[in-house]
Amino acid sequence: MVRVGVTMPVEDGLSASDFVQIAVEAEELGYDTVLCGEVAGAEVMATLGMMAARTDRIRLASGIIPTSTRSPVLAAMGFATLSSMAPGRISVGLGASSPIIVDEWHGREFTKPLTTTRDFIEIFRRAISGEKISMETRTLRTRNFRLAIDPKADLPIWLAAINDRMLRLAGAVADGVFLTWCPPSEVEQKLEIVRSGAIEVGRDPSDIEVVLSFWGFEGEVEDVSLVRERCRRSVLAYAMVPTHRSAFLQAFPTLSEAAVAWEAGDREKALGLTGDDVVDSMCAVGPPGVVSDRVGQYAGAGVDLPVVFVVGPGHSGPEPALETMRSTAKTLGLMSA
User: What is the residue-averaged pLDDT of the chain?
Assistant: First the structure.
């Protein structure tokens, strides 16, 4: 039976109580994991803490928090706190993020993202182990820090990776790789890079959990149309991030033309160049069954944990996410598993 996760729709204008409601129902429906990302809305540690207090079984994970907006010791404090409350149920999802979030929003330098992420993970691991650490790298430093709370369990680290160098780093240093904006047809080639990173440092590639999130929605025809257009805008926006763009080339054949239009300020033309085939390759939007079909495709491609980003039309409350979760759980038979 395939394990399936759910990611909170953090850009839908929902409240903390909405997110907790989604997490509680996800557990009731038989989902394996609930994830919460961090963009410009809910703060992830507080949100996961509320979820931990209201659930008993389901795994909880960040999906994803940047390695440049918190220090690694602050992150260790936060995740150890969560784990002390829900031992064995917490996973640490980390990623380099983007210049917009790190530099423009948080006012921190977005430099050497690969090195920063590697250094962050090293300091975080040492901190979470409880040892007293003093460490200075090219990008980060801490002196005489010792964690004063017991996490009570191991904390697996998932590293978000889009580009080749980060995929290879995930294989070298992480417990799992977190893929996104990745069509089923591209999973295997990305995993080959992860495996090469693992083999280079003497690790067993089969020990690395493969997690992949994709945007999913099931609903009525009029809502499907609205969500599809929202997905189109999101695919385009992510593809235009300079650090992400190369990862979209294979699935987005008109990317170069769209980028020229985008940079010229012609958003309408750029959207017009983002075809339905591009959207459908990365997002599962349609009638009941479309999300579960995509889950099956990803599982067949080697993904251990497909994760549905339960998107809705936007600012429409938690119900669209809940409906997608319910219909997908029913089709996959999660509740009877």
Answer: 96
